[in-house]
Amino acid sequence: MNERVLVVDDDPLVVDLFVNVLEDAGYRVEGVFCGKEAIERLTAAPFDVLLADVKMPDVDGLEVLRQAKALDPEIAAVIITGYGTMEMAIKAIQLGAEGFVLKPAEVEDLLAMVAHAVEKRQLIRENVRLKALLPLFEVTKRLASEVEPGELNELALDFAVKETKADGGAVLLRDETRPGCLTVAAVHGMHPEIARAITIQEAEDPIGRVLQSGAGCLLVADEGPLGAVADWAGAAWELCVPLSIGKRVLGVLDVWGTQRQALTEDYLLLLSTLAGQLAVTRENALLYQHMESMVEERTRELRRAQERLLRSERLAVIGQLGASVAHELRHPLGVMRQSTYYLSLKLADADEKVKKHLRILEQEIGASDKIITDLMDFSRVHKPTLAEVDVESLLDQTLASMEIPAGIQVIRTRAQKLPHIWVDGQQLQQAFRNLIANAYQAMPEGGTLYITTAREGKYLEITFQDTGMGIPPAHLEHIFEPLFTTKERGAGLGLGLSIVRRIVEQHQGTIEVESLVGQGTTFTVCLPILIPEAE
Amino acid sequence: MSVTRRILIVDDDDAVCETLSDVLEAVGYHTVIAGDGEEAVTCIQKEDFGLVLMDLRMPRMNGVQAYREIKKRRPAVEAIMITAYATGDLVQEALRAGAREVLSKPLAMDRLLTLIAAVCP
Amino acid sequence: MSDKAPAETGEEAALGPLVRKVGHLVRNKLAVLVNSTYYLRLRLGDTDEKVTRHLNLMEREVGVASAVVADLMDFVIVKEPARRPLDVNQLAGDVLSELAYPDAIKIVTALKPGLPLIEADPAQIARALEKLLVNAVEAMTAGGRLTVRTGLGDDGQMVWIAVSDTGPGIPVEDQARLFDPLFTTKPQGFGLGLPIARSFVERHGGRLEVRSSPEKGTTCTVTLPPRSR
After folding, report:
1. I want to staple A467 with a disulfide (CB 3.0 to 4.6 A). Which of A4, A230, A520, B48 is the partner?
2. What residues of chain C, 169 to 208, have a C-beta less than 8 Å from chain A?
3. For position C57, what pLDDT does the model report?
4. What ipTM was predicted for this assembly?
5. How would you label A93-106 residue by residue, b for 16+ Cβ within 10 Å and e otherwise?
6. Could you list the residue range(s) of the whole structural domain that residue C51 is in?
7. What is the pLDDT of residue A29?
8. Which listed CATH number (3.40.50.12280, 3.30.565.10, 3.90.78.10, 3.40.50.150) goes with A387-528?
């Protein structure tokens, strides 16, 4: 109900009657007495139903019908006709009238006819909408397969302008770099350079209200100001719908025309639907691009992780072999140690040379043991078993378990309330031990070792700084490599620092070194403050 | 002591040299120790030896090169090479250079002493 | 964002040199131990039974340690064979004579005469054979027969050497893992023997096959290509 009806008949009584009847039935009715006036009214405002007498002196009903249909092809028209004008009635039907009412009209017949006409028009409109949607589906399909946001805008705009028979249109987007302003992302019917030169301030521009309200609107030049771009184009009307995703309004889809035409809410609906599609596909396109790069990054990461896993698996097998060998060697070394011990006891009173060789036996067995231990440590950096550890007390323990060489001072700087971290305490202690031993060895004539702990964001930072001989730049880049050693021959395998790095990296941490020859070396270990995954 | 009972021991590991020297001296030879090939050549220039016991794999100058240098100066010096690890090619080279034997560490001492006795009567 | 094969980076690349270095260092240490032990023996002679016993222990254990190191080196470090024309029958004979066997084991040889010479590194093939022989002997704890045969392959070209024992055989479920370096059925020690033997043989372009059953015992066959002309 609530349709707007225009009644035109040269007989005022008829008009009066029809107006009353229809108003009672709930329609909004206007009545005029001649064809010319009818045409004027139709041009000025949209009507849903036209009730026109065929036979009128100046402009007859057919002409009115013709004009009405020209203005709005979907208007429902019912012709009022007398018996003498059947041919005209048929012609009217041919012109698109829905039906006719015979004079004198029974009220029921009239209402039925009007209702029928309205219904038919509804059907036609739906049909039109559906038909209009078909290209929309097409466009949607194309939009969905288009991945470039720029292309999307063009596609949507093209469709919008065509379907609304507009003279031009634009996609205006909110400018993130300039809040309160809109930029022209695409434009039809105007030179892009000109369009881009127009400044559109959301607060001042009439289309601003679309952005604010999130609802589409029709602007008519006679009734009020148009948006800046449409105005520039010299448009007579402008249809503007928001481009939004959920609650976020990204901008507007705007079309305008210079020809006055009956624009119905269908166009608004069409444009809104299109705008909705555009917004979604645009977001998708952006997301897609983002996703593509994310997928690329993820793939790379996965591959690196796989390589790491492969490498660590391989190392694990080889490590096991190393551990196996080391274990095998431990046994004979153990026997030798016992035998040497016995011999030293038994031969305590032997001469110097014998005692010397006994000492040599002990030393070499010890040295072999150290090599074996190094090998085992290197092989044994397995997956950490995590437990909550207080790093400060772990450092205390490690220092306590090692003899501080004469002339060396150890200064600890403790952070306030350092959080406990989840690490493999045994491995970490091994790492600390190696770093501290390294520092001691760098200061054979004494010096100071500074050990500092601090929290850096999501990491725990532990630095070991010595005042020793330092490491020359050429060696610095190799220092974590296994077997790299600058120490005298016979001093072991040079695995200490590579083990430290292994352990630190197994915990997803990092280790860095800085050094100045003659001044000292600083090792910085960063360990993430991990939260263990729930079992 | 006759020249043939003078043995030059060459190895970059001091402990190996020292302990081997003690054993040989206990058996009646006179030994001199050198830490690498160059030092060995210097020793040969100063004194004569009947035998040089040399590690095949040493830094800078390996056993074979050292022995060749030694032979240039004193061609009569015999050599027994000892090695913890060597490729077949290096062993071949040593034998071609005139070494009597290539023995692997750790040494079978009885065999070594028997061999030395044969080479240096 | 390196796409290098994992073996090329960092730690794996260090493994060969690491093993070499360990081998070298440990062997030097062992050499010193041998020397000093020998010196003590020279000086102390047979003065005290216990002293002698411990000195013997030292020597024996050094031998054990040496063997372990040697195995490790052989397995991890792939040396390019120093090839030479080789008579397999002579090699088999040499290797057999250098090992010591318990009395309960009977040695039988069936070496086919007139076999073509092969081109191989004698030390490596000898070591492979040695490993097979040691395995065979260890399998026959209650005594048995150790057979070494040589022959010419079906193609008339390849030369084979087979080492057989009359031991209990290898259980079917273990047979798949025979060449796995960490797999061993021995109570002590690790089983690098077969992997090492195979490594040496395959380096020469040959094959090592194992056939085993509870009734017949185990036979390991080494097949080697002849000299290429």
Report:
1. A520
2. 181-182, 188-190
3. 87
4. 0.73
5. eebbbbbbbbbebe
6. 6-76
7. 92
8. 3.30.565.10
